[in-house]
Design goal:
With 273 residues, this protein is α/β, with parallel strands linked by helices. Helices cover 33% and strands 19% of the residues. The chain contains nine helices and eleven strands. It is globular and about 60 Å long.
Length: 273
């Protein structure tokens, strides 16, 4: 649920959700308190959660802009699942002698996850491949990842037209709507959730046994966040990647990065789920 924080000198609240969109935050700073703007002199701490994801979404300049309004003695806490160059760059700009705390996170492993790929020559053949999978597999619950909100909406409509019961979620939905969808999915009211990477981090559903990458992710880091969802709680998990010819290079790059092997999907994949 969103957290409502009263802002000094204003009759407004800053709504904190899973991600703060630049347009909302910066317009609030500049416009909602026209005489004093946002009073920041009493702010003691700035926390950047999921910092690597914020950078992937293009929020680097916006983070700098927010930091520029804060007192120089503000403590900065940066939480990130990965440490790409951009994250290290932020630490040098915002922090003095930072203390690094490394925590082992069990979802950041491929152990126990059986990974396969299905070669698909053309984009339009992916849907038929997906339908064939669901005709042959008995699945407790599954998550299907797409790279865009438009693809999520399109695939959801196609699946429903084919008489599959599915739900969908992406970042353009209101938080209340996403919470309701997640509640239904956790309760098992729907077995298939189609989503963007808004679902790839920080959400656990015990019954998920299969993850399908309808689109390969745009970064290697997102791959492990996506498929790490399927093998939690000691259950065996399977990840299936739909791969076009021009995706082979990305797939091999993922294999090399994680020192893992992704084989072509066998005929007996149903026995593995």
């Amino acid at each position: 649920m969103p957290t409502l924080i009263p802002l000094a000198g204003c009759r407004n609240y800053l709504i904190i959700n899973d991600k703060i969109r630049h347009e909302f935050l910066m317009s609030f700073i500049r416009n909602h308190c026209p005489t004093t703007q946002l009073r920041t002199r009493h702010i003691k701490m700035l926390i950047l959660d999921e910092a690597d994801e914020m950078l992937n979404l293009g929020f680097k300049e916006q983070i700098y802009e927010v930091y520029r309004h804060l007192p120089p003695q503000t403590q900065v806490i940066l939480v990130s699942a990965t440490l790409p160059h951009e994250i290290l760059e932020i630490t040098t700009k915002f922090m003095t002698d930072p203390i690094r705390i490394l925590v082992k996170r069990d979802e950041l492993t491929l152990e126990g996850i059986k990974q396969f790929f299905v070669a698909v020559e053309r984009e339009e053949w992916k849907f038929d491949t997906l339908c064939d999978l669901y005709d042959t597999l008995t699945i407790t619950q599954a998550v299907i990842f797409c790279n865009t909100k438009r693809k999520v909406n399109w695939l959801t409509e196609k699946m429903r037209e084919a008489n599959f019961t599915v739900s969908s979620m992406h970042g353009d939905m209101k938080q209340e709507e996403r919470d309701a969808i997640m509640k239904e999915f956790r309760a098992g009211d729907t077995r298939v959730l189609i989503t963007t990477d808004v679902w790839a981090r920080g959400i656990d559903v015990q019954q998920v046994s299969l993850v399908i990458n309808y689109d390969l992710p745009n970064s290697r880091e997102l791959y492990i966040h996506r498929i790490g969802r399927s093998g939690r709680f000691g259950r065996k998990g399977v990840a299936i990647n739909f791969v076009k010819n021009d995706d082979i290079r990305i797939l091999r790059d993922i294999e090399q990065y994680y020192a893992t092997q992704i084989d072509e999907m066998p005929m007996n994949v149903a026995d593995l789920i």
